[in-house]
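Task 17 of the worksheet. Students: predict the tertiary structure of the chain below and write it out as structure tokens. Keep your answer in the requested format; marks are given for formatting as well as content.
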Amino acid sequence: MASLSRRQLLAQAGRAGLAGIGLAGMGGAAAATGTTNPRHPLAARAPHFSAKAKRVIFFFMNGGMSHVDSFDPKAELHALDGQESSRKGRKWKASQWQTITDPVTGIETTNLVPHLNSVMEEIALLRSMRGPFGDHFEATLHMHTGQRGMARPGIGAWLSYGLGTTNTDLPAHVVIAKKEIYGGAKAWDASFLPPIHQGMRIVPGAEPVKYVSPHPSIGERQPGELAFIEKLNRRHQVGREDTAELGARMLSFKTATSLQREAPGLFNIEAELEETLGLYGMPNAEARDFGWQCLMARRMAESGVRFIEVIHWGNWDHHSNISAHGKLGREIDQPIAGLIRDLRTRGMLEETLIVFATEFGRTPYHDSNPTGRGHHRSAFTCWLAGGGVKGGTVFGETDPTGNEVAVDPVTINDFHATILHLVGFDHERLTYAYTGRDFRLTDVYGNVIEDVLA
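Model answer:
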């Protein structure tokens, strides 16, 4: 049998499945992962100061969810419905969803999200969000990276870099997404941060992580072959100054092997009670898929994953038919409310920060099609709940039609600064040196929104 080079052995291992897991999605590591430093690059690290939140679950509504049809209802739009709006050629458009008031907090939402309204005592609404971009690609990347017009590390990568993980058998940063969002994987990329902090994508379905099981052809030979490859790699490292890329590959094999052990139990929900499945709306056909995503977010949080992004697979970009929001609302409403209740029952909500975001809102007047709404960066709503958040509150407000921010505008950088604060970081001090300067998630902007802190 002809001898194999180290490169050929690595390629063969990749075909066996490990490199497939490994980690374009999970990344490698920085130079510190070489043999000179035994400390795992994802080992848990202390934040700048003590904080209640130890982890983040980040919900993203792809396409631009309408604020005036969900979390910022406007009675004035009913009075003005059909009249000429502030934009020539567009008429004010009332919401087709009824306003409902939470009896505990007095906060108004609509019956697009009745289950979320019923847990409003845990939620802080930010009704005065606004952004610089009105197209999906740039706005989505800005919401994730805080940067304008360029790809930079996403917020999940920054949290992984800052906090590490309590379970090095799993990645610190996971993205549960049936479909890619605008901007694709750039939204959860590590960019110039060590690649170990890149998000690993999980796709809902029969095989959430591809190639997680060893290929049948490799069977019991896998441990021996991996040990042999590592021996060759370590030999190759000797006397070489820059082996960061090789160290990353070596770590990716170890992490992928750990994931092979962890994944079967992590994705098996057979032990969950019927009552719990019902809480997430999983018996409901419309909510079942997203309910699985929310339940998986809880299980990953329990297993030590620091940042879990849950991306709704539907597209809220309803230019021609805003009534389509109704179906998407039914898909997300009960599962997210169920997650909040489940975390609260398990004593996890105080240590889990829940973030709900979309890239922008939708116009309070009709689009070129009278039955739809256009992109609207001037005003929209995001919200926070859980660890360190003052629930049952509203920060900021829009004008009577929801067209412009009227009080306390919130930028994306402010939003990120507040999220980082809630997990224990001074956003001005969480930096990474690259190309001669210190970079941060909030760039040179951002103020913590003190009014939403418990």
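Marker's comment: The domain at 44-206+274-452 is CATH 3.40.720.10 (Alkaline Phosphatase, subunit A). The chain has one domain: 44-206+274-452.
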